Amino acid sequence: MIFINLLPHREAARKKQKEQFFTQLGLAALLGGIICGAVFTWYQGQIATQQGRNSFLQAEIIKLETEIKDIAVLQREIASLRARQIAVEDLQADRNLPVHMLDELVKQLPDGIYLRSVKQENQNVLLQGVAQSQERVSELLRNLAKNSAWLTKPDLVEIVAATVPVSGREQRRVANFTIRATLTRPAPAAAATAVLVPASKS
């Protein structure tokens, strides 16, 4: 026997295909949404993590900037204290300079010379005195130039021949002189030598 299907089987097949297509499309859209949501969530997590790192770095930078400012203030205070310390040390050293100058003059002054005046202005020293001869003045200049650690750069300003009464009508020829020198602090080794040499002699 022959069966003839008179139902619209083509329309049913098309309908079934459409249903399968829409089902697959819905599943694809759902899968795509899940994937997009997962990717979005992952990116949001990465962004949140990076923002947390940035916030941490900003906080650390602020701390470092504060510490740098504190260090700069401390450095300025240290520099100020060092400047004060140097100033105090210079004042203490300069306080003893006149004593060293007079002691040095006693050591370097040759026989036949006496000083009338000694004037100090800052580091400049002006010596005025009387010598038995010009050779004595030359000897004093040599002593100050070569043997003195405290009085340096001696310069003869002037020397004038004169006469002074000795006794009765007798007079003696002398040389009035003016010498300019520079009062300086010697190097530590030279200062130690200058202090130790007289002690060893005594």
Throw out a few tags for this protein.
202 residues, alpha+beta, four-stranded antiparallel sheet, 4 helices, 4 strands
Summarize the structure.
This protein is α+β, with helices and mostly antiparallel strands. It has four helices and four strands.
Describe this structure in words.
- With 202 residues, the chain is α+β, with helices and mostly antiparallel strands.
- It is 62% helix and 24% strand.
- The protein contains 4 helices and 4 strands; from the N terminus they run H-H-E-E-H-E-E-H.
- A 4-stranded antiparallel sheet has the order 1-2-4-3.
- A hairpin with a 2-residue loop joins strand 1 (113-121) and strand 2 (124-131).
- The chain is rod-shaped.
- 10% of the residues are buried.
The spatial strand order of the largest sheet comes to: 1-2-4-3
User: Main sheet, how many strands, which sense, barrel?
Assistant: 4 strands, antiparallel
Number of helices, where a helix is a run of at least 4 consecutive DSSP H or I residues? 4
Radius of gyration: 52 Å
Number of strands: 4
